[in-house]
Amino acid sequence: MKICFATHNQNKLKEINQILGNDFEVVGLTDIGCTEEIIEDGNTLEENSAIKARHVFSNYNIPCFADDTGLEVESLGGAPGVYSARYAGEPSNSQNNIKLLLQNLDGESNRTARFRTVITLIWNSEEIQFEGIVRGAIADSLKGTDGFGYDPIFIPEGQSRTFSEMSSNEKNAISHRGRAVAKLVDYLKSV
To answer: Alpha carbon 16 to chain centroid distance?
Structure first.
């Protein structure tokens, strides 16, 4: 089953393919010839994932899904949230985002946070959303070398290691994206 994941991010594409296995042929935006920038100007993760999926479906006529993910830190009122990828400004840079987040949490005892992913699927002209959440805390410093984004500072609940200290299989089994994708897969297998 061929489906487009509306992303140019090779890390995300690799992660999704690891989660989905051989049941689906997942292609990215580059694979379908989509080179234009899709402006994510929504105010929520739900809006941004829908914007991307609608753009791909209406312009390339292929079943597709798109995600948007945010890191929501309790003591920062849910920030960076929908602005997670560009928290430290443009151009988007994970190292700068992490540095700013750690500065903003300096001296803060409440480091509770959650990662939240929203996936919008457009299948047979029907639009459905799936959400995945993992709760945890922000580490005091970067730990680990794997993963991407905020992975080096996010410690999932019940764990003592950051996502970056885990293998991709360990992370995918408990991650926000893994949970949202599991719901997506369950749906796709039922249609």
So the answer is: 10
Percent with pLDDT over 70 in the chain = 100
**What is the residue range of 136's domain?**
2-190
Domain tally for the chain? 1
Residue-wise pLDDT for 64-77, tens only, equals 999 999 999 999 99
Active-site residue, 68 included: yes
1, two tokens: 């089953």
**56-81 CB burial, b ≥16 within 10 A, e <16:** bbeeeebbbbbbbbbbbbbebeebbb
State the catalytic residue, choosing from 68, 146, 151, 186: 68
Place of tokens 């749906």: 187
- Assign residue 74 the CATH number of its domain: 3.90.950.10
- Which among 63, 60, 40, 12 has a CA at the least distance from the CA of 187? 63
pLDDT of residue 19: 74
